[in-house]
Every structure is written in structure tokens, then in C-alpha cells.
């Protein structure tokens, strides 16, 4: 249990695939052996790839009757010891919210890929957006923390799928891959390594599966059928799962641990990439496919000798506040381009200090192109 | 009490939390007896329950792996468990609100797939936990907290629904005939494929007191008088059939074919 090195069952070397397919490959590489899903544009290719690949690795695939059932089946499968995932887009993600909360409360490792399209409502099914950033954090009721990752390339759809499973097993929490229609449908080469690290959940018998001596701990997780007489309940429960429907102290202790096990280990979870951050005048903070446009723009400015940097957020939740705060202390202007009306902007405003912060927001179903980012930056550097 | 029942119970958790006179206690008793008499290894049983009074039939009292899930979704969770580990015997026990209303979609699809697990619907015809509201199974004319003038919506015949959807063992029992209930649970548990038992139960607190059946005894008597066998129902006139429900098995010996049924 814990970290181990495994050999890839996909030929090591370069592959050419669509982002959604690479995500499915990453999941299988991480040990995913169960997929339940429901068709939705632009995420269906994850399912189509899984139905082909899972039987080859003795995994299980089922198309469920809706998204509520898909995530429910994933949680059930996870408790049999399988690494399990589903993939969806906005409307399906909304339907999954109650059961994602159930997975948080029962500390069930699972991965949900949300290949975002532009919304709200049914929106435009084939066009890109990233309007689900806040929903990923706050969508289910009650107080909780969650992990969400943001890939910017086909390579990262593969890499972050592995990481999503590793984090979800390490912290016993649903991990959301916040992809988008553009990265999902992008086709490019990506590299598969021969050996890589995966994390398998800690298992122990006779110990409480829902409590730890530490206030921020992750308890071991036995499976159904292990003879532990488990009680897995979404109701407030004590360490052995017994329902404590009216005990306020038990609820407070549980809610705080569920939160602290993530917040107190944020350093292990946060990943950011920085480009040209030596003494910059303007720093672009962004994520996902927009970060690629931003890198294009920043590179051009560097060629002109203009001090424009880029901080790319690979982890969106918990919000990488340390990196954002640090960057904000050393530059005057922050620009946050994103395909929504300012969701990560809000977070940047919350943590950044002593800098002017501008958003660059677009919800027309297109990615934000480098030219648009460049002209926004140009207005800031006068 | 028979010694061999104890290993199947978390005895230290009793007395249970169901209301006095609640028929669900009889269902709990019947489930424990069935599992013990079949000598199912505890390690292989997974109980799945939803939200509502019926969640308390399994939650904490039966000593096996227990999954207490979101409202309406037990069969979707059970599907994931069964597919990921087919060795486990799954018994999903939940209420009529959970299985037939908010979770109705999962009920018909689990039946359609004919997936191998057993579902017991503890059907008291009312939302007990939340204060006696109308259910999709409330009899016509019955008073509930949301139908103060009497229910005007026809209730679901859950057995007909599950037969129509493709369940391969379907039966109706009532808590007024516990021996038949035990026999049926055992049969359903051993059945390969989707098995469903609609168990009519009593709720004197939320249903009975609003409908002139104030004591648990009166409710049991009401179930006994109105539950009639499949054979007897054929000899009744339309007038005599009113308010009656049919007890028995509905499709025990049917072999499924694609888009239809053929008798063995």
C-alpha cells in the first residue's frame, strides 16, 4: 500500500491521441478498473475509450441510466477496492453533486472528469468554457474540501489522470479533473513512461475506517467483503460508521477532519508552473487551455524585452494561494484570463496583495486566443 | 430466540429506533431469520439502504457490511458493487419513497438489466420520517399530511412495474404474514437475477392515526383482511376487488428473452 512503482501496460514512448482518450489511458495506468458513465458531449470519448480498454485489463465498464447513477455506481465500486471513475460535462456534473458530497462524507476515493462546455443550463454542448470552477468546489451542500486539477494538454490529460487517482487514494477524497472541450478534443502526441509511481489506498483491519488519532488524518480503508462488518454511511458517523444523528460534537469533529486532511496537506497537492517570473511587470495567472495562449503571448513579449510572466495553476482546489500570493508581492499587475466571468479571478483577489488585478473574461464558446491576451497585457504595461 | 440468529445481529445496538408498532421491525426480523436459516456467510453479504424509515431496518442492526447511501440511489450503488465484485450477495432494503419515487429510475433500470441482487421494498404507503406526506404508493382516498382531503392520485403497483421492466423474480408480501415473508426472502435471495419483494408494512404513527387505524393491531388486521392471494382474486367481482392488494409471486418461473418473456 502507499506509493509503488508500476510498469505501463501501454507501450512506452510517444502516442498520438485525443485528450479524452489520453485521460482514459492515464486512468488505466493509475490502476482504474471500473468506469460508469452516461453519454454527454464533449466528454463521451472518455467512455468510448474505456469500453474498449477496460476489458483488456480485466476491468469493468457499465453505461448507467443517468449521471446520478453513474457516480453512485463509482462510489459503490470503489468500496469493493477498485479504483473507479466517471466522466461528464456541466449538466451531468450538476446531477452528480449530491453523491459527490456522499463520497466526501464517506471518504471514498474516486475520480470525476468534467470536460467543461460553455453554460449555464444546456448551454452550447460542443463549445468550450470553464464555468464550473466554483461549482467543483462548492457544488454539494455542507462544508467540505475537494481536489480539482486543470490539464492544459493531451500530455497532461494523461499525467493528471494518474495524479488524480494517486491523490484520491492518498486522501480518500473525490478528485475532479477540470478539463474542457478544447483540451478534451485536442489531438497531439504525448509521452508514456515505462515506469511511474502510483498510490494505492492504505488498508488495515480492526481500526476505525472513519477516524484517526490525528485531527487531520486519513483513516485506512478496508473493502466490502473483507469481513469487517463495515458501515458506510453518508449520515454523520463515528469512527466505525455508526450513525450519530444528533451529536453536535461528533459532527464538528468529522467536518473539521474532512477539511483539515486536505487543507493541512495542501503543500503535497499544490502544483503550479511558472514562466518568466524573474522581476516581471505583469503576471498572467491562468489555467487549462487558456494558459497555452497565455504562454504564447508571454513568449512574444519576452522577445520584445517586455517583462511579462505567467503563473499556470495545475491545481485549482485547494486554491494554490501560496504561489499566487508570492507572485503578487513582486509585481504590480496581475491579469487573470479565463473562459468564464471571473471565477478564479475572485480567488486571486482574495489572496493577492498590493497589485492591480484585472480579469479577461470570455464566454463565447471559443478558447481565448494569444492575441486577445497580448492586447490586454499591452494596456497594462502602457 | 434461536441461537443461530445472534451472529447476524449487532445485539448491542438494540432496542432499535423504529416507532412502536412499526411493521419494519417485522421485516428486520424476517431478514435476519432468512439469512441465518440460509446460513449465508456474513462476509459475503452487503446490505444497501437508502434514506427514510426503512434505512433503519439495516443500518446498525444487521451484522454485515452495510452501505447507507443518498436518497433514492441504493440500487445504483448496488449495481456498482455487484459489477465490481460479483461474489458479494447484495440485499438492498429501502422504502417506497426511496425506491419508487425519487429512485424510480434506478428501480426500472436495475430490473431491466436483470442484475443479480435482491431488493426489498418496505412499503408503508407514506413518508414516515418527514411527517406523513403522500407517497407514490399511498392508497386512493387515504389522508396524508399533504392530502388532507384524501389522496386523488392512483398509487403504483410496484410488482407490475418491476415485472414490466424485466425483473425475473417478483413477489408481494405483507408484514401480517411473516412466515410467507421469510419464505419469499429466502427464495428471492437464492434467485439468480433481479429479485424484488414489495413488502406491505404498517405505519400506525403517520398513516394509521390519520386513517382510522390507530393501533398497530388494527393496521395488521387491515393488511390481513385486504391482502388476498392471486388465486382468490380471480373469483372476485370488480366491486369486491376495490381496495384489495394481491399477495404472492408474480413471475417466479419466467425465462427472459430479448424484448419479452417466454414461459419455461
Describe the 3D structure:
The complex is a heterodimer of chains A (382) and B (264). Chain A has 382 residues and is α/β, with parallel strands linked by helices. Chain A has 13 helices and 18 strands. In chain A, the strands form four sheets. In chain A, strands 3, 4, 5, 6, 7, 8, 9 and 16 form an eight-stranded mixed β-sheet that branches. In chain A, strands 13-15-14-17-18 form a five-stranded mixed β-sheet, sandwiched between helices. In chain A, strands 1-11 form a two-stranded antiparallel sheet. In chain A, α12 (343-351) links the parallel β17 (333-338) and β18. Chain A is globular. In chain A, 55% of the residues are buried. With 264 residues, chain B is of the alpha/beta class. Chain B contains ten helices and twelve strands. Chain B has helices at residues 24-38, 55-58, 74-84, 96-102, 104-113, 158-165, 178-190, 216-226, 230-233, 238-241; strands at 45-49, 65-68, 89-95, 118-123, 126-127, 133-134, 169-174, 195-200, 227-229, 245-249, 254-257, 260-263. In chain B, α7 links the parallel β7 and β8. In chain B, 33% of the residues lie in helices and 20% in strands.
Q: Strand portion of chain B, in percent?
A: 15-25%
Average pLDDT, all residues of chain B: 92
User: Which two chains form the greatest contact, residue counts included?
Assistant: A-B, 42 and 32 residues
**Shape, principal axes of CA atoms of chain A:** globular
The gist of it:
The complex is a heterodimer of chains A (382) and B (264). Chain A has 382 residues and is an alpha/beta fold.
Amino acid at each position: 500500500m502507499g506509493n509503488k512503482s508500476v510498469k505501463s501496460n501501454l507501450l512506452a514512448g510517444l502516442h498520438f491521441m485525443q485528450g479524452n482518450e489520453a485521460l482514459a489511458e492515464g486512468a488505466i495506468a493509475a490502476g482504474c478498473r471500473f468506469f460508469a458513465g452516461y453519454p454527454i458531449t464533449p466528454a463521451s470519448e472518455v467512455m468510448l475509450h474505456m469500453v474498449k480498454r477496460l476489458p483488456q485489463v480485466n476491468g469493468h465498464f457499465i453505461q448507467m441510466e443517468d449521471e446520478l447513477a453513474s457516480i453512485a455506481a463509482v462510489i459503490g465500486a470503489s468500496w469493493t477496492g477498485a479504483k473507479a471513475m466517471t466522466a461528464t460535462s456541466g449538466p451531468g456534473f450538476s446531477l452528480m453533486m449530491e453523491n459527490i458530497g456522499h463520497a466526501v462524507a464517506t471518504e471514498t476515493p474516486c475520480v470525476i472528469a468534467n470536460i467543461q462546455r460553455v453554460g449555464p443550463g444546456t448551454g452550447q454542448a460542443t463549445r468550450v468554457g470553464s464555468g464550473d470552477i466554483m461549482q467543483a468546489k462548492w457544488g454539494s451542500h455542507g462544508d467540505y474540501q475537494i481536489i480539482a486539477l486543470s490539464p492544459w494538454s493531451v500530455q497532461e490529460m494523461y499525467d493528471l489522470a494518474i495524479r488524480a487517482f494517486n491523490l484520491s487514494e492518498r486522501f480518500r477524497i473525490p478528485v475532479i479533473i477540470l478539463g474542457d472541450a478544447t483540451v478534451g478534443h485536442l489531438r497531439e502526441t504525448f509521452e508514456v513512461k515505462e515506469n511511474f509511481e502510483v498510490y494505492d489506498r492504505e488498508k488495515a483491519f480492526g481500526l476505525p475506517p472513519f477516524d484517526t488519532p490525528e485531527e487531520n488524518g486519513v483513516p485506512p480503508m478496508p473493502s466490502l467483503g473483507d469481513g469487517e462488518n463495515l458501515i458506510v454511511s453518508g449520515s454523520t458517523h463515528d469512527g466505525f460508521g455508526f450513525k450519530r444523528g444528533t451529536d453536535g460534537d461528533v459532527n464538528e469533529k468529522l467536518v473539521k477532519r474532512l477539511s483539515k486532511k486536505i487543507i493541512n496537506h495542501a503543500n503535497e497537492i499544490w502544483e503550479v508552473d511558472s514562466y518568466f517570473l524573474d522581476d516581471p511587470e505583469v503576471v498572467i495567472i491562468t489555467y487549462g487551455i487558456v494558459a497555452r495562449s497565455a504562454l504564447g503571448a508571454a513568449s512574444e513579449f519576452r522577445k520584445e524585452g517586455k517583462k511579462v510572466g505567467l503563473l499556470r495553476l495545475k491545481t485549482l482546489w485547494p486554491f494554490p494561494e501560496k504561489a499566487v500570493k508570492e507572485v503578487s508581492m513582486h509585481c504590480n499587475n496581475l491579469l487573470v484570463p479565463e473562459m468564464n466571468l471571473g471565477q478564479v479571478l475572485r480567488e486571486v483577489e482574495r489572496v493577492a496583495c498590493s497589485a492591480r488585478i484585472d480579469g479577461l473574461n470570455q464566454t463565447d464558446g471559443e478558447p481565448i486566443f494569444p492575441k486577445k491576451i497580448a492586447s490586454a497585457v499591452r494596456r497594462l504595461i502602457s | 430466540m434461536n441461537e443461530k440468529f445472534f451472529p447476524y445481529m449487532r445485539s448491542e445496538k438494540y432496542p432499535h429506533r423504529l416507532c412502536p408498532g412499526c411493521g419494519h421491525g417485522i421485516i428486520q426480523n424476517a431478514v435476519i431469520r432468512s439469512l441465518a436459516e440460509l446460513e449465508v456467510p456474513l462476509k459475503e453479504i452487503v446490505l444497501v439502504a437508502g434514506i427514510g424509515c426503512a434505512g433503519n431496518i439495516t443500518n446498525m442492526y444487521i451484522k454485515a457490511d452495510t452501505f447507507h447511501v443518498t436518497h433514492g440511489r441504493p440500487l445504483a450503488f448496488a449495481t456498482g458493487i455487484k459489477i465490481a465484485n460479483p461474489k458479494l450477495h447484495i440485499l438492498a432494503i429501502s422504502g417506497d419513497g426511496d425506491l419508487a419515487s425519487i429512485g424510480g429510475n434506478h428501480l426500472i433500470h436495475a430490473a431491466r438489466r436483470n442484475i443479480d441482487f435482491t431488493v426489498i421494498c418496505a412499503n408503508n404507503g407514506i413518508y414516515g420520517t418527514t411527517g406523513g406526506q403522500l407517497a407514490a404508493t399511498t392508497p386512493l382516498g387515504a389522508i396524508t399530511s399533504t392530502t388532507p382531503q384524501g389522496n386523488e392520485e392512483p398509487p403504483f403497483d410496484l410488482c407490475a412495474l418491476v415485472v414490466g421492466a424485466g425483473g425475473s423474480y417478483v413477489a408481494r408480501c405483507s408484514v401480517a404474514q411473516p412466515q410467507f415473508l421469510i419464505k419469499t426472502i429466502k427464495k428471492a435471495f437464492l434467485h439468480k437475477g433481479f429479485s424484488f419483494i414489495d413488502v406491505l408494512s404498517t405505519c400506525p404513527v403517520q398513516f394509521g392515526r390519520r386513517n382510522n387505524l390507530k393501533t398497530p393491531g388494527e393496521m395488521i388486521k387491515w393488511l390481513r383482511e385486504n391482502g388476498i392471494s392471486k388465486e382468490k382474486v380471480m373469483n372476485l367481482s370488480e366491486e369486491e376487488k376495490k381496495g384489495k392488494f394481491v399477495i404472492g409471486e408474480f413471475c417466479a418461473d419466467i425465462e427472459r428473452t430479448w424484448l419479452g418473456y417466454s414461459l419455461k
